[in-house]
Write a structure and sequence with these properties.
With 234 residues, the protein is mostly helical. Helices cover 82% and strands 0% of the residues. It has helices spanning 2-12, 15-51, 59-73, 77-88, 96-121, 125-133, 138-168, 180-188, 193-233.
């Protein structure tokens, strides 16, 4: 045990090792951040199309959205990443970070769409009917009645999706990207098992730290929304 903590101290006292871990951590955060943005934006659009009232103009978009979510959710993330890298964006000189962001963003969008769709559908249809009876437009009903309630149902599951995206980015090392996972492997390569475990342990602490921050923020948002509910009831 003393040797383990000695190795950790040695790791943090070696500038080259720390720089490698920080570089890998920065790449992980960049991929996750932009992928989450794409996932939320595209997922919201897909969910709104999927939950919109039936219309001849939306038949094809609805069909495309459902096929998209079915295919993405039904295939492994690793397979999607390989297809993006070695088939769709197999272009010499094309930035690998862009490819990774698109791969994770498109994957997250399918799951986010289902989360948002579920949140919208969880709101009682009677409230929409009541709004229509009062003469409110469907847009007003959605923005003032449905959306606020749906958001409260969406936040916990969306927080879980964000955490999932951050952890899944570890597989970019499979296509040669120097993320946090790859940095830990690189530092530990060529050493004995005890020395190899140390950088992996430190990388795990990095992941744990960022996920703890995300979880804390999500819980604070949930708590704030609960307080607003209590004030409304009073």
């Amino acid at each position: 045990m003393n040797n383990f903590f000695f190795k950790i101290g040695e790791l943090f006292s070696t500038p080259g090792y720390i720089n490698s871990l920080l570089h890998g951590f920065l790449l992980t955060i960049q991929i996750a951040y932009f992928a989450i943005l794409i996932g939320i934006l595209l997922g919201t659009i897909i969910a709104l199309v999927d939950t919109a009232r039936p219309s001849k103009w939306l038949v094809i978009p609805k069909f495309i959205c459902r096929i998209y979510t079915t295919v993405i959710r039904g295939t492994p993330m690793a397979l999607q990443l390989f297809i993006m890298f070695f088939v769709i964006f197999a272009i010499k000189g094309f930035p690998s970070i862009i490819t990774a962001i698109l791969a994770f963003g498109l994957n997250s969008a399918a799951y986010t769409a289902e989360i948002i769709r579920g949140g919208i559908l969880s709101v009682d249809k009677g409230q929409t009917e009541a709004g229509l009876a009062l003469g409110l437009s469907r847009k007003t009903i959605f923005m003032k009645i449905v959306a606020p309630q749906a958001i409260k149902n969406i936040i916990p599951a969306l927080g879980n999706e964000i955490v999932t995206v951050i952890k899944e980015t570890a597989i970019v090392s499979m296509v040669g990207m120097y993320d946090l996972n790859m940095a830990a492997k690189d530092i530990g390569s060529g050493q004995n098992m005890a020395s190899y475990i140390v950088p992996m342990f430190v990388a795990a602490l990095f992941y744990l730290g960022i996920i703890y921050v995300i979880t804390f923020i999500v819980k604070r948002i949930e708590k704030s929304l609960r307080k607003s509910d209590l004030r409304a009831e009073k």
